[in-house]
Amino acid sequence: MTEPTPNPAQQQLIENTDGIYVVDAGAGTGKTFAITHRYAEIVDQPAVEPEDVLLVTFTRSAATEMKERIVDHSTYSLRELADGSIQTFHSHCFDILQEHGYRAPTHLGLDERITGSTRVVEDELVENELFREFIDQFRDTHPGYADVFRALSAPLELLDVVSELASKGVFPTTEGWYRDGETALDGDFDAFKSLFDDVNQPRNDGRKQSRLRSKLNRYGRNKTYLPEAPAKAELRGDGTKQVPARVTELVFDEDREGLKAFIHDVYIEYLDFALGRNYLTFGFLQLFAFVLLCEDDVLRERVAYDYVMVDEFQDTSEIQFKLALLLAGTDNICVVGDWKQSIYSFQYADVDNIREFEARLDRFTDDLDEERERIQFEVDEIERIELTENYRSTQTVLDFSEEALVVPATDRDDVDDSVLNDVVSLSSNATFDNTTIEGVHDPDEHEAVLSTIQDVVGNEEYAVEDEDGHQRTPTYGDIAILTRTRDFGRELLTVADEYDFPMAYDGGIELFRTDQAKLLLAWLRILEADADRGWAVVLEQAGYVLDEIDHILNTGDYPANIATFRDELDERAAVGAVARAVFDRYGFSGEYADVILHTIQSVHESSTLTRGDLIRFIERGIENGSTHDVFTSAGVDSVTVQTIHSAKGLEYPIVVLANMNSGKFPPNGGGSSVIQYSEPVGLRQRKQYATVAEHPHVYDNWRHDVVRHCLSRDNDEERRLLYVAITRAESHVLFTGGEDPNTFFEELPCPTREADPTVETVDRTATAQTQLPFSIVQPDGPTGHTPHTLMDSNVFANDGTETEAVEFRGRDFGSRIHDFAEAYALGEDVTPAIDDADDERHVKAFLDSLPGELHVEERAVLPLEVDDERVTISGIVDLVHETPTEIEIIDFKTDRTRRGQPEYRKQLSAYYHVLLECFPDKTVTTSLFYTAEGEREFIEPLSQDRLRDLVRSVSMREQERN
DNA sequence: TTAAATCCCGCCTCC
DNA sequence: CGGGATTTAA
């Protein structure tokens, strides 16, 4: 986006820095732009420094982006902001605890301390593992709770309860509950009654029974209650269309002391366990920071900020709202968000934080001021600002997105149209509006998606606008496929592979179901128990056929080289070292292996992990299909596949919303915690047995079987999800539906059509050179480049003036700093204003320090012979620096915190070998230059053999997919 | 014809 | 475990 001047609404937000503001910033309204300018405006006041201003973002990457953008607008440099307070709630809490948290646990009566070595467990799998360990030990040391445990089918769900309570600000102390925590657990009868009455209204003018009564038809099905439980007939009443009113009290009044005591003990002892093990979870970071700020008035006043801004406020939880208040030293509070994009309730986000901001602010302030005044300012004057000008989408897309908020999710869904009253309509500033919105269906939805894309790419009817405002036909890179589930995305990727479609998946993979993990598991089993099923996998991998494997297993006569490797492994004590050795042997060095190693390493650090533990850990990982984030790159011009959740905040010219299928969007039900906490009702216990007939346990919580029908969730969040997906689109929105498209697909007010049934394989040889940063392209492709032909075609001597070099840049590739470096290296005029920014200064100083010639934005293709097959690795680097004796490959990165070092290394290595061949008389080196730090890091290139291994492991992955 | 009961099917999103 | 489809009851 070019940097425009703020529009009036943005200007209002930027200029009004004092007082309480709630900003309704709809999708694409230049929210980041406005916030960063506002931040700059605040810190550019003489009396204000960055450390006086707290800017909370929701993700780390958002924080990084904010910082980068702020540098553009203010006199501060990235380094000066680095210590400032632009970060997530979690990292901010972490910082507070690091500095002042030593005694924080004592406020809950705990003796443990938070120290500089206390770690944060981020990996969910690791956290689960630790909790499991805790709960096993808890069970042993509390025989009194044996009955409760007997009824708990999945103890891990206790962790959910603890996390949810922590997110709502309900904490235990060694003596009882922190502050008024117990009130929340007991619930609010009046609130419950109103929910109960709502679902208990007779329908059709009294001719039809209430929803609740209807639901209770299932009461007791496949269950056996304790004798004192009421009979079904008693609950449902007779001769009336309603459940009798007295049932309200009947179900609410329950002696929950035992259950509360149980949860309390689990909760407080888990806190103690975590501290004892020297770790904190995300939730506990906030818990202890909150307690600390609540208890220590002097500290609170010291760490409080003059200005507080919270971005993505619709994603905040109750405790985060309160933390923001505690961290505000004045009433200069600004929250920015869009309730229509609140889709993280499963992460305890509470949409009412923004929708009912005023009421909640009052309530939370009163709450925090209960014992003594903690919030030292008035909260009665609240200003609302609405950003209504949209810089992303066409008006047609914007109008359509509102429809999503009221579209029925099921046939009988009675949608509350009144939400539209709360929608601040947006107006587009797009010059063109040739928007197409349509549904495409085909029995095979994967193919429907591919054929739709095929239809769109290069098609004038789906023209998109380029940066200069010109219309052009779309390319693959313009398209994002947004899905609700990761599974669908990965299935799609497999099908795309068959047609050689350029498609990149961005999200989680089932890490432990990969070949890498399976082989590691096999070796661990061999080491641990000489297990046949371990050997079978290893032997099969080594190329032995079934008969041979049988024979070897029977005789125990293992091939010498494998047996030797076994002995070598056996000598390694640490499981991490075993894993590394296994991956080295098989040449597994890709993203998957890296992430596996990293995960193992983090479990290892957090507990004393034996081989047996690791085996069980991987087995559980395989069972649960637990996922870890990876990014599979497929070149610059490729379609992106993402879940809607992960696409939030992004934008694409064309959005294909897939998998609106089988009548199941949304899917059924909500979570099914064994023990459920909910605001008005309090803590409830549910114990369920799938097959009571086989296991004649007694199900004693009949109350919950009534109550849960009063807590049914509506489909609003599903509609908001749809809204988020649509508003990602700049120009066109397409829906695909499979065999049995759901209600959303059918009810959305747009035309639908049949998909073109033929999908053609894509010829990607034409784009082979645009692979980034590392991948396999057509073997022996027609490009036929050798390093020498590249030399001949003058690629290395490219002075950057050829248009080819410029048009090659992808949408996100040319960041400010690259542009700067390029312009400077080419001796162009560089505007003086930019001299103030650290990054530019660093780059400039660096470039000045280099003697010899600079070549900007180079690319190369390295052909490799791998197993008699010729493959090509291609890479692009930002800069090549050449002197008579040396040639250096340099790539710019902003800082070291970014992920992807292994990828950079591959990319640089591919290039390294090309140059090595081209310039036999020169020394070739590879380095990364961190612009924010002004430092150059030399990178050891991978050997050609290592690259070959990489190619092999990637080929294996490809085969695995097919 | 309408309401109530029962049968049938598939099970997410992630800091 | 809920929603839609189907069957049964009135």
From TrEMBL:
Pfam families in the record: PDDEXK_1, UvrD-helicase, UvrD_C
Keywords, alphabetical: ATP-binding, Coiled coil, DNA damage, DNA repair, DNA-binding, Exonuclease, Helicase, Hydrolase, Isomerase, Nuclease, Nucleotide-binding
Domain UvrD-like helicase ATP-binding: 4-394
Organism expressing this protein natively: Natronomonas salsuginis
Statement: the UniProt record of this protein carries the keyword Transferase: no
PROSITE patterns: UVRD_HELICASE_ATP_BIND, UVRD_HELICASE_CTER
A Gene Ontology biological process term: recombinational repair
Lineage: Archaea, Methanobacteriati, Methanobacteriota, Stenosarchaea group, Halobacteria
Protein name: DNA 3'-5' helicase
UniProt domain UvrD-like helicase C-terminal: residue ranges: 395-649
Binding site for ATP: 25-32
Catalytic activity of the protein: ATP + H2O = ADP + phosphate + H(+); Couples ATP hydrolysis with the unwinding of duplex DNA by translocating in the 3'-5' direction
GO-annotated molecular function: 3'-5' DNA helicase activity; ATP binding; DNA binding; exonuclease activity
Coiled-coil regions, chain positions: 354-388
